[in-house]
Automatic annotation (TrEMBL):
Native source organism of the sequence: Aquilegia coerulea (Rocky mountain columbine)
Any GO BP annotation: DNA replication
Record-stated family: Belongs to the DCC1 family.
Keyword Transmembrane helix found: no
PANTHER family reported for this sequence: SISTER CHROMATID COHESION PROTEIN DCC1 (PTHR13395:SF6), SISTER CHROMATID COHESION PROTEIN DCC1-RELATED (PTHR13395)
Pfam families in the cross-refs: Dcc1
Entry's Gene Ontology cellular component terms: chromatin; chromosome, centromeric region; Ctf18 RFC-like complex
Keywords: DNA replication
Name of this chain's protein: Sister chromatid cohesion protein DCC1
Length: 389
């Protein structure tokens, strides 16, 4: 009489064409809610096989699956078919010809009701923005931060190391780094911080002041020289370098090295924000005060303020006020909700700067407009108007 031996997944993996295998209940058969099937494509498989993936999310959040550069939502998809989970087995009890003479039976440990699918999604960077905003850097904290860094804790002071952010933010490492750059964060004594806008403005003003005193060209700033002078003025080295990164761009010099060139738009936008910090102003008054603050050699134009200000006509006067895209949520639903709280109707040319930075995998800007807005156009040559859907 032919005997049977229970085997694991190998019995199925080695199954030949037009052949079959019997199945039986594994001694540990049950619900096993801790075992889930994950369906992945060929693009992600190498990351899984080389242990370059991680699941992130706090207990009260939906989990996300991250490679080094991409974030995926985990979606459960049920199936009406029976999907058997067969664990690997220890086949050491089988010897030589025994395998051929015995009937192989695969042991099923669980019947899976479905699989987890991966859907590429945008990183959850609003939480990163919120964490960074808890404790912006305002200067004069170096001794405290060095002591804190040595002790290896933050005591809930709103200070976060890289590993703290990785643990809390649902984003891949690459997307998290991009988010830190987008929010102008800087690492100080091991902690990632955003810098208070007024303090950063003071640093920029010192760069401009010293450029006059030292004869620096705003289009060819030497990093070591600028940082050295700012350090002598009492600013931390990291902040001095961060100022150049925030308001400038690296350019090659004639010797193949690098210099910094202050970005005209970034500098002009900074001073526009400063002028409007007290609230809305008449356009003529704003333009006059703004132009007075622009550094020599730079030319400001109102077009630079796209996505930074809103204007409205009240009677015969045009008024302007600050409304920066950087202050808006990163998720599309919350972004459009905030925009339509600000204005019930938007013209296309006004709305575009406030949604241009939105990135949703598989959905273009036109797709976002279709999903979240209603478009009206009285005549073919009229500017489209968008309202909330």
């Amino acid at each position: 009489m032919e005997s049977s031996r229970e085997r694991g997944a190998e019995a199925v993996l080695n199954l030949k064409t037009n052949s079959s295998v019997s199945i039986t209940y594994h001694p540990l058969f049950g619900l096993h809610d801790d075992l889930l099937l994950l369906e992945i494509d060929d693009k992600i498989l190498p990351h899984v096989l080389n242990n370059r993936v991680i699941v992130r999310g706090q207990p009260d959040e939906d989990a996300v699956f991250c490679t080094s550069t991409t974030t995926y939502a985990l979606k459960f998809v049920g199936t009406s078919n029976s999907v058997f989970l067969i664990p690997p087995s220890d086949c050491s009890f089988l010897n030589g010809n025994d395998v051929e003479e015995e009937k192989v039976v695969a042991s099923v440990i669980k019947v899976a009701p479905g699989v987890m699918e991966l859907v590429e999604v945008a990183p959850k960077l609003d939480k990163l923005k919120w964490l960074l905003a808890e404790n912006p850097y305002k200067g004069g904290e170096e001794d405290f931060m060095e002591e804190l860094s040595e002790m290896g804790g933050n005591w809930n002071n709103g200070l976060y190391r890289w590993e703290d952010l990785v643990d809390r933010v649902q984003a891949s490492d690459g997307e998290l780094r991009e988010g830190l750059r987008a929010f102008n964060a800087v690492e100080i004594c091991g902690y990632w911080r955003i810098v208070d806008e007024m303090y950063m403005g003071m640093v920029l003003s010192m760069v401009l002041h010293n450029s006059v005193l030292c004869g620096w060209s705003l289009g060819a700033l030497n990093e070591d020289e600028v940082v050295g002078v700012l350090e002598s003025d009492g600013f931390p080295r990291e902040i001095a370098r961060h100022c150049l990164e925030m308001y400038g761009n690296k350019v090659r010099d004639e010797d193949g090295g690098y210099l910094w060139k202050l970005d005209e738009r970034k500098v002009c936008v900074h001073f526009a924000r400063s002028v409007l910090s007290g609230g809305k102003m008449k356009m003529d008054s704003f333009m006059e005060k703004w132009m007075q603050k622009i550094p020599g050699g730079m030319i400001a134009s109102f077009e630079m303020l796209e996505g930074e200000v809103l204007s409205e006509r009240i009677g015969v006067e045009t008024w302007i006020r600050s409304f920066s895209v950087s202050s808006l949520p990163c998720t599309p639903a919350e972004r459009f909700a905030a925009l339509f709280r600000e204005r019930q109707k938007w013209e296309s040319k006004e709305l575009d700067p406030y949604i241009r930075d939105l990135r949703v995998p598989g959905l273009s800007s036109e797709g976002l407009l279709l999903k979240y807005t209603r478009r009206t156009q009285p005549t073919l040559d009229a500017e489209p108007i968008f309202t909330a859907r």
